[in-house]
Amino acid sequence: MEPEERVDWIEKKLREGLDAQRVEVVDEGHLHAGHAGAKSGRGHFRALIVANRFDGLSRVARQRLVFEVLAAEMQSEIHALAMRTLTPAEAELSESAAG
After folding, report:
1. Antiparallel, parallel or unpaired: β 43-50 and 78-86
2. Which residues have a Cβ under 8 Å from the Cβ of 85 and sit 6 or more positions away?
């Protein structure tokens, strides 16, 4: 799968699996050239996920939900995933604080 296809696929899976209001995935594979995980063809990604499903959950519980949605991709397409998981209210506060 091409890098752009991976990003689109991951975004689609997260949007559908978490009923997310906002999903932004960035392929950071170029930052990890030569890394053992990159050699296997699996990618390094960063994601921002905004979903009501995260309301009332700890950061760890939110990440577990994301990993459940992407379980198959974690075995085949994704080597590493850095994520920021927010509720819509948290995202709004974060954006207003950033100015």
Report:
1. parallel
2. 49, 51, 54, 59, 62, 63, 65, 66
pTM of the model: 0.84
On the 0-12 / 13-18 / 19+ scale of CB atoms within 10 A, 98 is: exposed
* CATH number reported for the structural domain that contains residue 88 in this entry: 3.30.300.90
Q: Would you state the pLDDT for residue 34?
A: 54
Q: Which structural domain range is residue 93 located in? A: 3-98
- Report the percent of the chain where pLDDT is more than 90: 62
> How many domains are contained in the chain?
1
Q: What is the mean pLDDT of the chain?
A: 87
